[in-house]
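Convert to structure. Protein one:
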Amino acid sequence: MRRILALPVALSMLLLGGCATDQRQDALTTTLNAYASTMRWGDFNGAAQFIDPKVREEHPISSLEMSRYQQYKVSGYDDGKGPIPNGQFEVTQVVQINLVNVNTQSERTVTDHQTWHYDADSKHWWLVSGLPDISRQ
């Protein structure tokens, strides 16, 4: 009798675990698509809202840094191979971002190494690596 009951309980646990993984994956896809869309529009203020609140508090973006972002328009955002899992609650992603300087009209490409972390309490993915570093040539 115990074996008969153990099988449905085990299957239920596997299915529930799979549901959590699917929900986490769906949330990741939605978050990465929303972030990419925000970046493609060059909305760096909006993109900053994807940064983990703890990271934002510890490393606030200065008005000088934000004014640097406003000097550029995004002409391309290529997430290449997409996110790569780095454990159960973290993914990394390498993105090529094409930027056009609004003053000089010169274009350059920045490689953004993103790290995203899943917060199980809020069921939300947060960017922990910050906005792309556009200061490097």
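Protein two, convert as well:
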Amino acid sequence: MFPKKVHYGLRFLLTLSGLAEGSHLGVAEIAERERLSVKFLEAIAVALRKGNIVNVRRGAGGGYSLAKPLKEITLYEIVLLLDEKLDKTIATEGSTTEKAVGRFLTSVRNDYGRLLRRVTLEKLRNYFAEENESIMYYI
């Protein structure tokens, strides 16, 4: 349902969410940690920077950091930036069947958008925390 760009972008953001305040991380280091293509992740990082989701600091000790708190970043923002298909126009002209299907799909897409707007990356961070807790064991 979601393209790889969205999956990789979320992994990128999840990694950044674990940084201490004022810290930055380079794309190459994140790509290595996550076993992702540096080139592909760089393109994702640029899109997220243009969308004001991440900040970039150039030079030594530079890299990326989140531009705002996780609870202010919605899944809709991420999908809209990384999935070009989300905001494509749906045809609603032509025969009655074309019009009906177009209206139906437009309605579904609008509902989908409303759902994505309600989900923040804070929820992703919570899932990550739950996963880490479930793999911990005590001796």
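Residues 4-135 form a domain with the Arc Repressor Mutant, subunit A fold (CATH 1.10.10.10). The two ends are 40 Å apart (CA to CA).
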